[in-house]
Amino acid sequence: MSIGPRIHCKMGTEEETLYDRIGGFEAVRDLVDAFYARVREDESLAPFFKHTSMEKLLKMQTEFFAAALGGPIDYSGMELSHVHHGRGIERAHFQRFVEILLETLEVKGVSDRDASSIIDRVSTYSGNILSEKGEDG
C-alpha cells in the first residue's frame, strides 16, 4: 500500500525528509516502540490491542510511520480502512492516540515543528481509521 506523497523540506542545498530529520529508521523504530508502550498503558486505548500481536503491530507501524514521514520504506500492511473496520474507533479514541503520540514525540526530543508535521501527516488518515457513523452504536 502506498502511504502517499513523500514529505520533503529544503535544508540548504540538500533535500531532507521528515524521516531524515527525526533520525531515520532507528529513530522511527524507537519512537514507535515507546509510543505503543504508552498506548497499551492507556485505559481508553489498551482494549483495542488486547488480542493483537504486538510484534506484528510494531513492525507494521514502523513501516507505516517510516513511509508516512518520507522514508525509503514501503508500508506492506493491509489498507488502514480494512484493518480498522468494525473496531468501534471513535473520534475521542483517535484524539487520545494523537495526544499520546505528541507526548511521545516531546519525550523523544522531536522539535515542535517536526512534531506538528508528524501529527498533521498521521491525522490525514483519520477517515480510514474512525468507525463510520452508526457503526459505533
Helix-strand blueprint:
Layout: E1 8-11, E2 14-17, H1 18-21, H2 24-41, H3 54-68, H4 80-84, H5 91-107, H6 112-123, H7 126-129
Antiparallel strand pairs: 1-2
Helix pairs in contact: 2-3, 2-5, 5-6
As for the CATH topology, it is: Globin-like
Q: How many whole angstroms does the radius of gyration measure?
A: 15 Å
**What is the distance, rounded to the nearest whole angstrom, between the alpha carbons of the first and last residues?**
30 Å
Q: Whole-number average pLDDT?
A: 86
- The CATH homologous superfamily name equals Globins
Beta-strand segment tally: 2
Question: So what's the CATH class?
Answer: Mainly Alpha
Approximate shape: globular
Short description:
This protein has 137 residues and is mostly helical.
What do you see in this structure?
The structure is a single chain. With 137 residues, the chain is mostly helical. The protein has one domain (8-129): Orthogonal Bundle (Globin-like). Helix content is 55%, strand content 6%. The protein contains 7 helices and 2 strands, in the order ββααααααα. It has a two-stranded antiparallel ribbon with strand order 1-2. A hairpin with a 2-residue loop joins β1 (8-11) and β2 (14-17). α2 crosses α3 and α2 packs across α5. The longest helix has 18 residues, at 24-41. The chain is globular, with a radius of gyration of 15 Å. It starts with 7 loop residues before the first strand and ends in an 8-residue tail after the last helix.
